[in-house]
Specification:
By secondary structure, the chain is α/β, with parallel strands linked by helices. It is about 30% helix and about 25% strand. It contains 19 helices and 21 strands. The strands form 3 sheets. It has an 8-stranded parallel β-sheet with strand order 5-12-13-14-15-16-17-18. A 7-stranded mixed β-sheet has the order 3-2-1-4-19-20-21. Strands 6-7-8-9-11-10 form a 6-stranded mixed β-sheet, with helices on both faces. It is globular, with a radius of gyration of 23 Å.
């Protein structure tokens, strides 16, 4: 009999040992959730069924069950519904924890030193893989090159994804292993950075595949470990459900193996990586909830453009800091509508990545055309919706389009966005409040591992429009601030609604899953922004079972 990997065995043992009871009682809590109108609802106890659903939220003087099968006294600690991250990348988060992380580097020299040290400490690795570099954070004023990277590692291929995942950096050995040279054609929807007519080491969007085809694929046991790492990272910050945006067939099989072993702890709303993988995963359409509400194939993830940081986002006018460059759309109007139509025909929800104003306009036009044929509750999604022409913002309300946005991107991207767009084109940037005013729907996430999956930092950013240091004073484009409650709703019930799961989780209410977290710091509706950012998760519970506890 095969032994489980240690991490999976520990997870399965934890779940098997966890109490499951009829009329279980979580008592003596300082609880707060949002009701179905988005108003705060406070409680001091939760009655839970054996299956892990909420029976009732109890008030201070309300009678408790006489003889609950199981009772937990949380001694007055603050309890909140688990967060729902509406846009993340599970396997990328997990593999990021297993490979080289450059997110904390502040200069090219610092990054090169870290890469060299990592390679020296891991002589057995045939490829050095990692992610997180950002030339903007380095103040480099250009993309890094293969010549730069060769200074750190010359004897093995090195392949490092940019922080946004839309560009990657190769050394000369990696390009040689992939057969990339001056004769290599640039694929549609991509860009090869060049110097003197030859590839200079950075590959943007679709061009990444030129090198990725040579990178060894992870083994199933490595995917299992990455998935476990990702779940631990999410649970440690209070995320109990997530949309996985871009699930490949290999990813889906890893999720199914974990489910079969009882090692799925986070609820996963899966969106297949493009139409092909989605149809291979869900041959007959979206799946039902599997493993007691832990896994469901909901829809398909498509891309209309790239990212702002790598100048791959498709803009209506040229970049302010790169004359003549506008980024690029990945599809013609007809191609995009054909892909969206094919997915909608089989009942898949359609989620399209669009960052630039031209890309957002293209997707909105496609939705307006398709909504006439594919009627009913389709919940069309636009992922990121970062830069929108103000004239296009009302179009989000016409078909109840879900703007799946990431508040933490705004303080992270602020100075870069100003440079890329110039001061006159920022009115529709990260326009959360306007999205709600025009009738669109908000669903918040973090785009992990592009950003840390910490929802408290994003929540604070959403109602302050400032970074952790409180800059800029009064907030950036402050007219787009949300109320604290609206921001919380977007991070909980909004994320659930975006995945057709609003009756399952996202709030604490009778009939819904008992997914909640225990946090330090007190009532989050009363904390200052800095105090909210400092909140720590002590426990995460999914379906009435404690699946993570801080030490």
């Amino acid at each position: 009999m095969k032994r489980l990997p240690a991490a999976l065995a520990a997870a399965a043992a934890l779940l098997a040992a966890a109490p499951a009871a009829a009329d279980a009682l979580i008592d003596n809590v300082n609880g707060v959730t949002l009701d179905d109108r988005g108003a705060p609802l406070r409680f001091t106890g939760i009655v839970i069924t054996r299956e892990g659903r909420v029976v009732k939220l109890l008030q201070p003087n309300e009678k408790r069950p006489d003889r609950p099968d199981w009772r937990a006294d949380l001694k007055g600690k603050t309890v909140l519904p688990g967060f729902v991250d509406a846009h993340g990348h599970l396997m990328e988060l997990g593999f990021g924890a297993l490979t080289l992380d450059l997110a904390d580097t502040k200069s090219l020299d610092e990054a090169l030193a870290k890469i060299a040290a990592y390679a020296a400490a891991n002589p057995e690795r045939k490829w050095i893989l990692g992610r997180g570099w950002n030339q903007e954070a380095w103040g480099l004023g250009r993309f890094p090159t293969n010549a730069d990277l060769d200074k750190a590692v010359r004897d093995r291929p090195v392949w490092l994804e940019r922080a946004d995942g839309h560009a990657a950096w190769a050394n000369s050995a990696a390009m040689a292993a992939a057969g990339v040279d001056a004769k290599t054609a640039t694929p549609a929807g991509g860009r090869i950075e060049k110097a003197n007519g030859a590839p200079s080491g950075v590959f943007v969007d679709a061009a990444k595949a030129l090198v990725e085809r040579a990178v060894p694929k992870p083994l199933p046991k490595e995917r299992a470990l990455a998935l476990e790492k990702a779940q631990l990272a999410l649970l440690s910050v209070g995320v109990t459900a997530t949309a996985d945006m871009g699930t490949t067939l290999d990813d889906w099989q890893a999720l199914r193996r974990a489910g079969d072993l009882g090692a799925l702890r986070v609820r996963v709303m899966s969106y297949g990586a493009g139409l092909e993988d989605t149809l291979r995963i869900g041959v007959t359409g979206p799946t039902p909830w599997l493993y007691g509400g832990k896994l469901k194939l909901v829809g398909v993830k498509l891309y209309a453009d790239g990212a702002l940081g790598s100048r791959g986002a498709w803009l209506k006018a040229p970049y302010a800091d790169a004359t003549g460059q506008r980024g690029a759309g990945f599809y013609s109007d007809a191609q995009l509508k054909n892909l969206m139509s094919r997915a909608a025909m089989d009942g898949y929800q359609v989620a399209v990545h669009a960052i630039g104003d031209a890309a957002n306009a293209q997707v909105l036009s496609a939705i307006e055309d398709l909504a006439q044929t594919y009627t009913g509750d389709r919940r069309w999604r636009i992922e990121h919706a970062q830069i929108v022409d103000p004239a296009d913002l009302p179009r989000f309300g016409r078909n109840g389009v879900i703007a799946s946005m990431q508040p933490i991107h705004q303080p992270s991207d602020r100075t870069m966005a100003e440079a890329r767009l110039g001061p006159d084109r920022l009115a529709g940037a990260y326009a959360w409040a306007t999205m709600l005013k025009v009738g669109g729907r908000l669903a918040f996430g973090t785009d992990y591992p592009v950003e840390r999956p910490d929802p408290f930092a994003g929540w604070a950013a959403a109602f302050t429009r400032t970074d952790a240091a409180g800059a800029p004073y009064g907030g950036w484009q402050p007219q787009e601030k949300l109320s604290r409650e609206a921001a919380w709703a977007a991070y909980t019930s909004g994320g659930a609604y975006a995945g057709f799961a609003e009756k399952e989780f996202g709030r604490l209410a009778p009939g819904m899953w008992a997914d909640f977290i225990v946090v330090s710091g007190g009532d989050p509706l009363l904390l200052s922004p800095s105090e909210l950012r400092a909140v720590k998760v002590e426990q995460s519970w999914v379906g009435g079972v404690m699946v993570w506890e801080g030490r």
